[in-house]
Amino acid sequence: MSDFSGKVAVITGAGEGIGYEIARQLVEHGASVLLNDVDENKAKSVASEISPEKCIGVGGDAGQVDVVRGLVSQAVEQFGRLDIAVANAGITLWNNFWEYKPDDFEKVLGVNLRGTFFLAQAAAKQMRSQGDGGRILFMSSVTGHQAIEYLSAYGMTKAALEMLAKQLTSELAQHKITVNCVAPGATVTPRNLKDDPDYEAHWSGVTPTGNVAYPADIANAALFLLSPVSGQITGQTIVVDGGWTRISPTPALDFVEDE
After folding, report:
1. Catalytic residue among 125, 154, 166, 214
2. Domains along the sequence of the chain with CATH
3. Is 54 known to be catalytic?
4. Rounded distance, CA 95 to CA 97, Å?
């Protein structure tokens, strides 16, 4: 499962957190990776940190169609082909339903849905032209399975991504391209810690295992779905949440109300 020698991947939103860890693990196991982040300097810095030879960093807003199409083109230009596309970029904008702003709604849908859809389209076209299949992975969330207050728009996008993976199965499987999702539960990432500095303590207390996840936990599931051994798995979602979706309690969300 861990041999990705000769494989080429594009990963969006990979300057830190889960995307970074997926990129790091893929390179560690032999792949070449085009790593994207909205912050170009960060993308280039972390790519060099992972591997100056096998990882290149490219800036750009992964919610823009021309950007994600360009990422696929650049991966092929740099490494000669494309085997893996991970639509990891996503944004979370907390607010209650009553006050949610149209501009924030458009931002969330733009990155989480539009960018993912058109990255998958561009990647699948390249994989189809190569003729030997590929792997596409969407980053969903437990909020696509269970409701959490203040995340109506975000949760909607994550549920939509899982439906998109199911839908694309009927069109891509004949080309040996699989499309799957990973749905992380509470995970310690810079973005979550920025929202809630006490994130780990809050969420570990309501997770059945007593622990939150770390990016490596999510990346481990991702690499399985991206690997050669998962060829008979498509249109599926792996939930990595320590059992949270089975009981679904939430901690206090005071940090939203305090904003």
Report:
1. 154
2. 8-257 (3.40.50.720)
3. no
4. 7
Q: What is the mean pLDDT of each run of 10 residues along the chain (259 residues)?
A: 91 98 98 98 98 98 98 98 98 95 97 98 98 98 95 98 98 98 96 90 93 97 97 98 87 74
Phi then psi for 180, rounded to 5 degrees?
Answer: -135, 175
Could you give phi then psi for residue 158, rounded to 5 degrees? -70, -40
Strand ranges inside the chain, DSSP E: 8-11, 32-37, 55-59, 84-87, 134-139, 177-184, 237-240
Annotated active-site residue 107? The verdict is no
Q: For residue 231, what are its two tokens?
A: 């060829």
pTM greater than 0.90: yes
Q: How far is it, in rounded angstroms, from Cα 222 to Cα 218?
A: 6
Question: Which residue out of 150, 158, 194, 199 is catalytically annotated?
Answer: 158
What is residue 1's predicted lDDT score, i.e. its pLDDT?
60
46: its two tokens: 């972390």
Quick check: helix, strand or coil at residue 132? coil
Q: Which of 224, 228, 222 is nearest to 19 (CA)?
A: 222
* Tokens, residue 238: 């792996």
Residue 239 one-letter amino acid: V
